[in-house]
Amino acid sequence: MMIEANLQEISASIPSSVTLVAVSKTKAQELLEEAYNAGQRHFGENRVQELEWKFEALPKDIKWHMIGHLQSKKVKKIAPFVHLIHGVDSFKLLKTINKEAEKCDRIIDCLIQFHIAEESTKFGFSIEEAEEMINSPEFFSLKNVRIIGVMGMATFTENTTLIREEFTHLHEIFNQLKRNQFRHASYFKEISMGMSGDYQIAIEEGSTMVRVGSAIFGARN
């Protein structure tokens, strides 16, 4: 019952306009079922292999989010069913997603990942790289992917001022793209930022989607 109580507490603390993605990576099937029975429908995984077997094992109305770094060679495994790919961090990856989505006769929703943190280990575009990609003729030829927003991860730090600045920066990137490249795209509306430790700050800075794991399921295995 702990998971149900945690979900209720988190849901009560976030606006109804914010999507709560339960980060279920490394968690056992029965824990996901407990969250599902409590009404949770959006789940996030960061490994393709784990995402595959959980999709097979769990109810089909679950919306699966690929939240980790995705290798191009593994896209085909999740293309038939993935709800949203959060971490599009290269043009090559986006083109691969488009190709595999076409084979499945699907349009796959994606977020462009931006590098907003101080850590060099994080993946993502700069605003200049993203605009160059979006303005290219090749981008316009991609008919089986849809960019619905942006995603970013803040620096792993206790410094909440820095975290807030990074989230503010991602919101500014979103606004810039919305004004310019996506001004006629009503579907371009998601800002995926904020995790268990910082989702409240992220929401204050405009997040529409938070990825919460340990605050729902307990500490990592």
Structural commentary:
41% of the residues lie in helices and 18% in strands. The protein has one domain (2-217): Alanine racemase (TIM Barrel), CATH 3.20.20. It has helices at residues 2-13, 29-37, 48-57, 75-78, 91-103, 127-134, 137-140, 160-179, 199-204, 214-217; strands at 19-23, 42-45, 63-66, 84-88, 108-114, 145-152, 190-192, 209-212. Helix 5 links the parallel strand 4 and strand 5. The two termini are 19 Å apart. It has 10 helices and 8 strands. The protein has an 8-stranded parallel sheet.
Q: Count the DSSP helices.
A: 10
| Biggest sheet strand line-up | 7-6-5-4-3-2-1-8
**How many distinct domains?**
1
Which runs of at least 5 residues are low in confidence (pLDDT < 50)?
none
Strand fraction: 15-25%
Q: Please write the string of helix (H) and strand (E) elements.
A: HEHEHEHEHEHHEHEHEH
- What is the helix content? 40-55%
Q: Architecture, according to CATH?
A: Alpha-Beta Barrel
Major β-sheet, in short? 8 strands, parallel
User: What is the global morphology?
Assistant: globular
Beta strand count: 8
The CATH superfamily is known as Alanine racemase
Counting helices, strands and paired strands, the structural category is alpha/beta
Distance between the termini: 19 Å
Q: Quaternary status of these chains? A: single chain
Classify the fold: give the CATH topology: TIM Barrel
Q: Please tell me how large the radius of gyration is.
A: 17 Å
Supply the CATH class.
Answer: Alpha Beta
